[in-house]
Amino acid sequence: MNVKELYQKTDGWLDSFGREERSLIAVLQAIQEEYSYLPREVFPYLAKEMNLNEAQIYGVATFYENFSLEAKGKYVIKVCDGTACHVRKSVPILNKLRQELKLDDGRKTTDDQLFTVETVSCLGACGLAPALTVNGEVHAAMTPEKAVALLAELRREA
Amino acid sequence: MMKEYMLIDKIPVPIEGEKNILALVQKAGIDMPTFCYYSELSVYGACRMCMVEDDRGNMHAACSTPPKAGMSVVTNSARLRKYRKNILELLLANHCRDCTTCEKSESCRLKELARRFYIEDVRFPNGKTEPERDESSVCISIDHSKCILCGDCVRMCNEVQNVGAISFVGRGSKMEVGTAFKVPIANTQCVGCGQCSAVCPTGAIVVQKNVTRTWEAIYDPNTVVVAQIAPAVRAGVAKELGEENGVIAAGKIFAAMRRMGFNHVYDTTTGADLTVTEEAAEFLERLKDDGPFPMFTSCCPAWIRYAENKHPELMPNISTCRSPMQMFGSVIKEYFEHNEKTAGKRIFSVAVMPCTAKKYEAIRPEFKRPDGTDTIDAIITTQELIQMIHEAGIDFKNISPESSSMPFGGTSGAGVIFGVTGGVTEAVLRNVEPDKTYSALQQIAMSGVRGLEGVKETTYQVGDQELKIAVVSGLGNAEKLIRKVQSGEAFYHLIEVMACPRGCIAGAGQPFARSREKAERAKNLYTTDNMTQIKRSESNPAIDEIYAKYIGRKAHSLLHVHYKVKKK
Fold first, then answer.
1. Does domain B88-207 have CATH number 3.30.70.100?
2. What would the CATH number be for the domain defined by A75-157?
3. What whole-number distance in Å separates Cα of residue B149 and Cα of residue B527?
4. DSSP letter string, B161-226
5. Cα B379 from Cα B384, distance rounded (Å)
6. Active-site amino acid positions of B
7. How far is CA B142 from the centre of its chain?
8. d(C-alpha B19, C-alpha B17), whole Å
9. Which of A16, A22, B24, B132 satisfies CB 3.0 to 4.6 Å to B144 for a cystine?
């Protein structure tokens, strides 16, 4: 992690969103957008710049499911588990992916930093259920078998 | 103007600027059950125990609803009772129920309310998690499995103390009170003030204990146990030991401690007199040399740690004087190790303190003696002392008071008032004021240094110099004042800082007390001052004796400290 660069970029976001307490979530989102997660090094820096405490920022970062504190893989797979996808059997897809990649509820990213598997509450693509996204791109009407094929394809591509 | 009224349980209660219905309910003589409400913290409204029901059958949390003229509420109804019992049952379902081995047992709010609402059985399976302890700090210990998430500690740490070591972490059923990245509390900005434990209604945050270590030293025939007792302790023990709240019990404490087997018992007020002498000299020196100003007091170890963490640039402004405990501790070890009667025996130095941060001060490397041992070997909080007195079975109420041991027996009124905010400043002023008459003493007392407010600003004329003085208690108040000083908005010669709101009498090592009881403790310390013939530290004959006979040329190295400033 290039800390100097991280601080520089963070300064930019702090300048545009403001250093008040209320800007915290916007700044965190900008950091996550850039790095795909919230690097630990940014916490003390934000605490100092925004006149908050690290524990407070950590509290916000852990409150929202959307914020991640761990670096993510090259391919972020989000399996939808909204109501529509759930009743059309999204859980077996998730389980299959985790089984293939040796991941579980606590371990979301593979050791080779290639894949991250997460769940999401609703992608808003209920008509395509069960759906998942790979780096934002939607894959419709998935099955466990199709998910395995998708993994193989992504591996070839990588 | 016509007075406005609200009906509480059909009784009209006048609204006199109360911010919430809860205050009115209390005024109506009802002790509302609460977990998350403290008048000095912001309103959180989490526990829902203080619900009241209005005429239309609507429920309101009394703590977070402003009073309205003509509104009528009841504090006790079939529905309210059912809800309160339900809340308690749900809390208990998720809580450790090993009350016999829980140290908060006697003062646990959860237990108290569970008994009060007569919870006979908990319908839900006990989801009590295994104890998850964080024992990393020498000041406090945290057990997450006893936490009811009332947030009192979080608000105390953030709002009142501006330390912010803990926050709510996670969400929903996984939420807990934690540090950033769940690092051990000792590795955070925690200053050890322990105020979190003072407001914790359960045994989730408690003070680390040194009781066993102290008993072991007492039982060891080759160890001489020497104790000193801080000013605030004498005002804090009484209620728990069956006496009138706040009664000054120094003499009885000395007697009880001798009964328990302490070999020598001294009064930290003697140490405070040393501090005044040194600190006043340093202050006069700075007045002569034109700074650096403001000079901050150095008695409070939580404040020292706060400054190190958040304001390392202020370290040169902090007086180099050791705290009274450390000064006296140095003198005690110096004396007993060179005393023929005790030479060759192990000297175990115990300090009885109202404070949890002292436990950290005691292990600081700056206070290691040349031979590598600590100046103070164990810190016993007021609560721990009470526990030891109970353990020994001493009938405190009927024990005859005794005096402290010799030498260093003399004390002054100036030393006693160290236990309350403003006391250090008043003691220093008594020293630097050249006019030693009674009226000068009165003038100092009336100069605005007394009172339990969080921030006091005053000026005092000494000769042709007008001294600008600020007295703050509570680290959040200190932070606000520091910002004013650093922005150039304010200037002071002397700033007294005590980390705990109202000073040491309200330290986290003291038994739990409400505001009124804390005020009584303060009043009683001032009464003791009134009753002491020697008012000024420098008039205490023990001080001259200590300088002349026991510490001599070592005075500076024994009584001062230079904290190593950490590079950020």
1. no
2. 3.40.30.10
3. 40
4. S-----EEES-GGG-EEE-GGG--GGGSS-----HHHHH-SSSSEEE---HHHHHHHHH-TTEEEE
5. 9
6. 279, 282, 299, 319, 358, 361, 366, 504
7. 18
8. 6
9. B132
Query: How many Cα atoms sit within 13 Å of B395 on the Cβ side?
Result: 3
Out of B493-502, B519-528, B548-557, least confident range: B548-557
What integer pLDDT is reported at residue B226 of this predicted model?
A: 94
Lowest-confidence pick of A10-14, B322-326, B379-383, B453-457: B453-457
* Shortest Cα distance, chain B CAs vs residue A135, angstroms: 26
The alpha carbon of residue A141 is apart from the nearest alpha carbon of chain B, in Å, by 32
Bridge-based pairing state of the strands B5-8 and B11-14? antiparallel
The pLDDT, as a whole number, for residue B246 is: 66
Of all residues in chain B, the percent with pLDDT exceeding 70 is 99
Q: List the domain boundaries for chain A.
A: 3-63, 75-157
| Mean per-residue pLDDT of chain B | 90
pLDDT (tens digit per residue) in B206-225: 999 999 999 999 999 999 99
Contacts of B346 (CB under 8 A, 6+ apart): B217, B220, B222, B223, B224
ipTM of this model? 0.84
- Confidence band for B1, pLDDT divided at 50, 70 and 90: low
Q: Which of B167, B188, B189 sits opposite A59 (nearest CB)?
A: B167
In the beta sheet, which residues pair with residue A117? A77
- B48 has a pLDDT exceeding 90: yes
Nearest to A55 among B170, B171, B179 (CB): B179
CATH architecture of the domain B5-76 equals: Roll (3.10)
From the CA of A69, how many Å to the nearest CA of chain B? 9
CB contact at 8 A, B353 and B382: yes
Which residues from A are below 8 Å from B171, CB to CB? 62-65
Domain residue spans of chain B: 5-76, 88-207, 212-559
Task: Give the whole-angstrom CA distance, residue B90 versus residue B85.
Answer: 9
**Is a pLDDT exceeding 90 seen at residue A115?**
yes
CA distance B245 to B524: 10
Q: Which CATH architecture has domain B212-559?
A: 3-Layer(aba) Sandwich (3.40)
* pLDDT tens per residue across span B519-552: 888 888 888 888 888 888 878 888 888 887 788 7
pLDDT > 50? residue B155: yes
Is residue A130 reached through a cis peptide bond, with omega within 30 degrees of 0 on the bond before it?
A: yes
Q: A58, B188: Cβ pair inside 8 Å?
A: no
- CB B97 within 8 Å of CB B105: no
